[in-house]
Structures are given as structure tokens and as C-alpha cells.
Amino acid sequence: MTIPLNDLPSKVSPVELLKAGSPTLAGTIAQTLADPVSDRFSDNDSQFLKFHGIYQQDDRDLRKTGKTYIMMVRLRLPGGVLTPAQYLACDALAARHANNTLRVTSRQSLQFHGVLKSNLGPLIRGIHETLLSTLAACGDVNRNVIAPPSSPADDFGRQVHAHARQIALALAPRTPAYHSIWIDGVALNLEDPKTREFEDPLYGRTYLPRKFKIGFAIPPVNDCDILSNCCGFIAIAGDNGQLRGYNLVAGGGMGRSHGNEATFPRLADVMGFLPSDRVEEVARAVLTIHRDFGGRADRKHARLKYVLADRGVAWFREELDRRLGFKLDEARPFQFDRQGDLVGWRRQADGRLALGIFVETGRIKDQQEVRMKTALREVVRKFEPEVRLTPANNLLLAQVDPEYQEEITRLLAAHGVRIHSQGSLLRRASMACVSLPTCGLGLAESERCLPDLITRIEALLAETGLEDQEITIRMTGCPNGCARPYLAEIGFVGKAPGRYQIWLGGNASSTRLNRLWRDNVIETNLIAELRPLVTRYARERAAGESFGDWVARVLWAESPATA
Ligand code: SF4
Fold it and tell me: 393 CB under 6 A from ligand 1?
């Protein structure tokens, strides 16, 4: 069932009308691109641009002197895997057409920031020439499909990644506008009846009510925060260790809005087991439930998680069975025991090596002491490892011949990237979204604020004898939750300039939501709020008990109001 324009519900958000009026998503993007005077796209076109992987933004640091328009461009990169040539191309494109940084995203992709309108065309053509795309990296479609970055280098891991790529391809929108505008450099001919009548075979004329996120996980490692996805596939091994199928989970999501109780983070529910050869049809069926039942009146309440919350899991299972024409089996047992990335060298199943590199706040850049961008470029150019991006904003250099281990270590160190000392456990477990100065939705600092805050929390832990403690800390500049703060042991969520909410109580395996502890705390008071808690934790914790587990056991029992 797709929704024709004249069958749209009577009260729909303006974005629904826009999509319905231009289902090729072309808008007037090509015309504006060709206009040498204009430095920006219209508000309507900025909605279409998202489907092309582009956000129109302005540098918020410069707003006092007027708006300076810049774009953010995001890759669609299923499983976060780049060949050496693709990584080097992105490195060069960032230098030539963006702000000479690459941002690893929380969905295993790369973002280019600070792109001027005049550089958009060359940048996206360059991305296309390296056999990558930005189509559907943003917008009301299936977003980047994520898959375990540290998956074993064996058949099992390869099959899971192959399924991620298969689904990404199957659920990609089919609009001819992307190729026409960015690759051929011409506007779509809207006089052509085929173009005028275009309707995407999967998404129809109005696409999805909002974004849709799919992930894969291989227990016991939950490095994709699988329960935060709209649709997740948890790989299940048979007795012979081969991939047998997946448990489907559905209805997860992080985003919420301040002061709007109808919006909330939600963990996905376990729906059942499917054989691995049915993964594409199941993903498609879950997506079409979102397409057909997701809210189209209020974009803040338009995610699949609200369909699940409003209609119930039993209804969802029945609807899914009906669409599939078969029932899922009982879910198989599975267990997650950790979430975070491993840093440093480790041996792959095939005898080669992988190197985990912590990228603070996900920003690959050159600074005075640590020239991460140059270091990676030189290593990738010389040794040609596969580059894997992680959902925790870090990266892995994989498929490395062991004979290069020492030379790579030395080369990185020459540029200040010391892989034997990549920061404290606390710092390595931290994540921040981009927020200011580029994200238009940021209410408070995030990427630019977290490193210093972590330094202060490190000092606090040292004061209380907890210097070797790992605590997952995530910060976002607004409640949309791009860095998934509601799964962290400590989450900071921007409320206003210099003010944050504190959320406490996630767990090490990223399978428990935290709860609001304090609202609207001034940034300079964050440590004062945490000090009594950390002091008590140091005193009262059980053997081996994590901070988040202590919060859930002790604090939540004392303060059920936060429940
Ligand atoms: Fe922007 Fe909010 Fe996402 Fe941060 S969480 S990047 S502020 S939308």
C-alpha cells in the first residue's frame, strides 16, 4: 500500500505536501546550483536536499554578522567499510571541497562539513567517481545500514556485512534526480510524462513519514547499539558455528523533544527468528509498516517506535505476518555483554591484524600535536588497509599483514597518534554529536565541549580512586539523540546554551535505557552534580559493579520519581 497524493490524511505536515508535489525529489536544486549569484537553496529545496545526503546549514559562530551558508554532506556507506582508495579519495575531497576534516558518524558513515554551495557539485561527483554515493544518507527513507565493525574476518562476518549491503541496495530510493543533477549536471526534464508521473516503487510519492534505521549485530558484542534501531537483525549461529539466521528486533529509536511527553526514547522489541535468506523481505515488510502506519501529521511523532508504542507488539507481529505470508519462529536465545570498540592491535580470525583507533568525538583532523588526518592518509596510502568506521565514531584499519605492524605503529606515532596510549578508558568510551557550530538543531555545545568535560570527570574519578573505571558517557547538543545518549551510563543532553540534562543508568551492553536525573544544569555545575554520586558509587558498589548498574540498583530504588 502506498499513499497517493489525494489520499493523504487531511492534516499532514508541510513536508508531506512537499514530497507529494515533487516525488522525484528534484525540486529546483539544479536551477539553484546553476545560479552563480545565490549562495543558498530555498527552504523547500533544503528538504529535498536531505534525501540527496545534504543538509543546508549556516555557521552559527558567525550569525551575529549575518548568515554564512555551508552544507554538510553525508555518505551512504553500508557497514561503514571503505576500500583504501575510497578513504584516500574522501581525504582528498575534504581538503579540496570541505573544511579539511572528516567526521565519523554514529551510523558508520563519513560527513564532509563546511561545503560551500559552489563546491557541492565537484564534491558529489568526486564521491561518485570513487563508487560511493550520498543518496538516502538523510531524508525520509532507509538510512545507512549499520553492521558490526569488528565482525570476524570469516564467512560469518562476511555474510552479515553482505546482508547489510543487500538491504541497503534493495531499500534505496529510485529517483532519477540524483544522477541527473549531480552526475550529469542537468535538471530533470519535468515535461517528460515519465518524470512527471514518477512514483518510487517502494516509497510511493510521499516516501516514509520520517527516517528509518536498520542495524545488524553479532552477539555478544553490541557495537551497533542494536536496540536503538527501527529494525535490527541479531545474528544467530547454528551448532556448526555458521550463520543460521537472525532474531528480528523492531521499534527502537532515540529521539525525543524537550517538554513533549509524547516523544521518548524506546528500545526495540524482540519479534522472532528468521532464516538468513529471508532478511531482505523481512526488512522490507518492517519498513512498509512504518510507511503505511507512521504518523504524517506531526514529524516529532512519526517514527516506527511510536507505531509500536501506540498499537502494541501483538498488533505489529500480526501485521508483519500478514505482509510476509509466513510467521517468524520463536526468537533464539542471545546475550550481549559489551558495547564499546576495542582499540589497539588484535589478530583477526584469518591471521591478519586489525588496528582499532580512537577518534575523539569522531573528528578526523590535524591539530598541532596530533595530526590524525595526515597520519591516516600516510598509513592508508602506504599499507592499503581496509578502513572500517564504527558506530561509536571510531575506526579500524583491517586486513593488515602482520609484518607491517611495527612500521604502522611508528608512522602513526610520528604524527602524534600513539596507539599504545589512546586515552583513558573513560575517554575512549565517550561519544559526542556534532552540534554547534554547524548543526541547525543544536541547543548547546557537544563535540567542542565534551573533551574538556571528560578531562574534568577524569580528575573527579581520580579523586575518588576510580581512575581505571570505564563509564560510558555520551553528549548531544539537543534531545534528538544522534550520539544515543539515552543508552549511556551518563548522558548529557543539551537544553539551552551552556545547560544540560543529566541522564543516568545505561548499562555496559547498551541494552537498558537510562533515566533523567537532573534537568537544566549549568555546564560549570555538571561536576558538582556528579561528585556525590561518584563518591557514593566508589564506596557502595558491589564487586565488579559498573556505574550504570549501581545507579539502577541503588539510585533508582531511592528515587522512583526518576523511573
Ligand atoms: Fe544536531 Fe541534535 Fe543531532 Fe546533536 S543530537 S547533531 S544537536 S540534531
Answer: no
